Amino acid sequence: MHKVFVFGTLKEGFPNFAINKGVRYPGNFQTKNRYPLYLVGERYSPWLILNRGFGHQVQGQVFLVDDGVLGEMDVLERIDVADGYRRVELTVIEQVTGEELEVYAYGKPLEQLYGAHIQQEIQGDYTLAHSALYRSRQAVA
């Protein structure tokens, strides 16, 4: 089983949660380090930028997933495409207990931000109000 930190549309109750067939790990987590988080493009996609030490601690949920679910998440996040997300390992901290976990997360390299249409900077917490702006890839096709 793999631990995956989700901070955007894959969170419970958010637009792409149906793809997330994992089991939620108890607690609410945030990244140990700070990262920039933006809504980007005409789809208002949440981008965690892999530029550690900048931005804010990003809040999210951790799920235990098997190889099949991890593969489905990889497809959604387009990790094999040049402009897709990258699956990386990082450390998250449970906000009450301080428990630290090494997890997978999906982020974008800093160079992908250059020339991108940034709609909004997020202060670390992608909310339902942010997700109301999100449009699926099919919706804009």
From TrEMBL:
<dbReference type="InterPro" id="IPR039126">
    <property type="entry name" value="GGACT"/>
</dbReference>
<comment type="similarity">
    <text>Belongs to the gamma-glutamylcyclotransferase family.</text>
</comment>
<dbReference type="Pfam" id="PF06094">
    <property type="entry name" value="GGACT"/>
</dbReference>
<dbReference type="InterPro" id="IPR013024">
    <property type="entry name" value="GGCT-like"/>
</dbReference>
<dbReference type="InterPro" id="IPR036568">
    <property type="entry name" value="GGCT-like_sf"/>
</dbReference>
<feature type="domain" description="Gamma-glutamylcyclotransferase AIG2-like">
    <location>
        <begin position="4"/>
        <end position="109"/>
    </location>
</feature>
<protein>
    <recommendedName>
        <fullName>Gamma-glutamylcyclotransferase family protein</fullName>
    </recommendedName>
</protein>
<dbReference type="InterPro" id="IPR009288">
    <property type="entry name" value="AIG2-like_dom"/>
</dbReference>
